[in-house]
């Protein structure tokens, strides 16, 4: 049987087998978080920074993540200005000892939409400061082209607003970005709710998906993590296999040659 | 003088560096510090002296999406 050659997910020169990046928030317990992340097969987990509390909860969380031995991707979630995002990115780099940053810069509180203008400014500053920026952006082709021109080697357009679980609201936009930026590593970030959404993103040719709420908020996060893993594998294989062209008219799949004629009339 | 530490106003009665201040506050690694919205690396903490009205943020890892 012929099998199709694949290339690994590549993020700033580093290669990964899994095509799912997973968040570490919103799980019902630390144990479920750890089990769900492990079950997902994800090799990259997102984390963040907040004010140190007097109790030990934060220390416990970080110990659990560290013992999993995964690549961490810190984010700048909650930042509303370039200054805030740049400062938080620099703090993340020191704490997590990585130059990767998932750059989130919120422009609107209602749908947590990224601010495209501030995002470009912050991206340029951070790239010049030596960061490897993974910008969380809207599914706007020109914005993605500008981020690409700045030197980003990964772009992460949204599927839908964070935490909505609505799936890919605008597959046409996502497909257009894929078509126009064939060299880019593209990751659909946010808004996924079902494994079929992840599968659809991979079928469009996206290199990976990043999700959190869809797994953490499921009735059984561990089982859902497994389902998402399977869906990313299916979606990637489907993309590699190249789907049949859609047709407007029915076409029989069973051969008509040798058909008896008892219903000819 | 008064400083703001993670959103809480605190009176300090003598000159202190950031390192001295956060150590007294019981800071536990890993953490990173910002002073008045600007990142201060850990190597700079012992050499930066606090001034009246300064805002210190001490951040540590948490869950993220």
How would you sum up this structure, described in words?
The complex is a heterodimer of chains A (265) and B (65). Chain A contains 9 helices and 12 strands. With 265 residues, chain A is an alpha/beta fold. Chain A has one domain: Aldolase class I (TIM Barrel, Alpha-Beta Barrel), CATH 3.20.20. In chain A, the strands form 3 sheets. Chain A has an 8-stranded parallel β-sheet with strand order 5-4-3-12-11-10-9-6. Chain A has a two-stranded antiparallel sheet with strand order 1-2. Chain A is globular, with a radius of gyration of 21 Å. Chain B has 65 residues and is mainly beta. Chain B has a single domain, classed as Beta-grasp domain (Ubiquitin-like (UB roll), Roll). Helices cover 11% and strands 37% of the residues of chain B. Chain B has 1 helix and 5 strands. Chain B has one helix at 18-24, and strands at residues 2-5, 8-11, 32-35, 38-40, 55-63. In chain B, strands 2-1-5-3-4 form a 5-stranded mixed β-sheet, with no helix packed on it. The interface between A and B is medium-sized, with 36 and 24 residues. Strand 4 (44-51) of chain A pairs antiparallel with strand 5 (55-63) of chain B. Chain A: Belongs to the ThiG family. Chain A: Pfam families: ThiG. Chain A: Keywords: Cytoplasm, Schiff base, Thiamine biosynthesis, Transferase.
Radius of gyration of chain B: 12 Å
**End-to-end Cα distance of chain B:** 39 Å
Determine the CATH superfamily of chain B. Answer: Beta-grasp domain
Strand order of the largest sheet of chain A: 5-4-3-12-11-10-9-6
Low-pLDDT residue spans of chain B: none
> What low-confidence regions of chain A span 5 or more consecutive residues with pLDDT below 50?
none
Order of helices and strands of chain A: EEEHEHEHEEEHEHEHEHEHH
Major β-sheet annotation of chain B: 5 strands, mixed
Quickly name the level 1 CATH class of chain B. Answer: Alpha Beta
Counting DSSP E segments of at least 2 residues, the number of strands of chain A comes to 12
């Amino acid at each position: 049987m012929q099998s199709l050659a694949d290339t690994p997910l590549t993020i700033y020169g580093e290669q990964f087998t899994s095509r799912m990046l997973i968040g570490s928030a919103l799980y019902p317990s630390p144990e479920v978080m750890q089990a769900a992340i492990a079950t997902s097969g994800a090799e990259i987990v997102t984390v963040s920074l907040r004010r140190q509390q007097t109790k030990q909860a934060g220390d416990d969380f970080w110990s659990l993540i560290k013992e999993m031995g995964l690549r961490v991707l810190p984010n700048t979630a909650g930042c509303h200005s370039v200054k805030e995002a740049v400062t938080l990115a620099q703090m993340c780099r020191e704490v997590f000892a990585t130059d990767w940053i998932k750059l989130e810069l919120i422009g609107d509180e209602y749908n947590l939409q990224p601010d495209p203008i501030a995002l470009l400014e912050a991206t340029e500053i951070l790239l010049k400061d030596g960061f490897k920026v993974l910008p969380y952006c809207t599914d706007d082709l020109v914005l993605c082209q500008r981020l690409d021109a700045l030197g980003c080697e990964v772009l992460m357009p949204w599927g839908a607003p964070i935490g909505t679980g609505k799936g890919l609201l605008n597959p046409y936009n996502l497909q257009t970005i894929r078509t126009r930026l064939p060299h880019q590593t593209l990751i659909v970030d946010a808004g996924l709710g079902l494994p079929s959404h992840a599968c659809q993103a991979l079928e469009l040719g996206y290199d990976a998906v990043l999700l959190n709420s869809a797994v953490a908020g499921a009735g059984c996060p561990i089982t859902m993590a497994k389902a998402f893993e399977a869906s990313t594998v299916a979606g990637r294989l489907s993309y590699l296999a190249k789907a049949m062209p859609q047709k407007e008219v029915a076409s029989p799949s069973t051969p008509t040659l040798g058909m008896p004629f008892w219903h000819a009339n | 003088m008064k400083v703001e530490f993670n959103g809480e106003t605190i009176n300090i009665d003598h000159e202190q560096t950031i390192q001295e201040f956060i150590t007294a506050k019981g800071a536990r690694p890993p953490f990173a510090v910002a002073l008045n919205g600007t990142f201060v690396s850990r190597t700079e903490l012992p050499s930066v002296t606090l001034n009246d009205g300064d805002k210190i943020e001490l951040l540590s890892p948490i869950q993220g999406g």
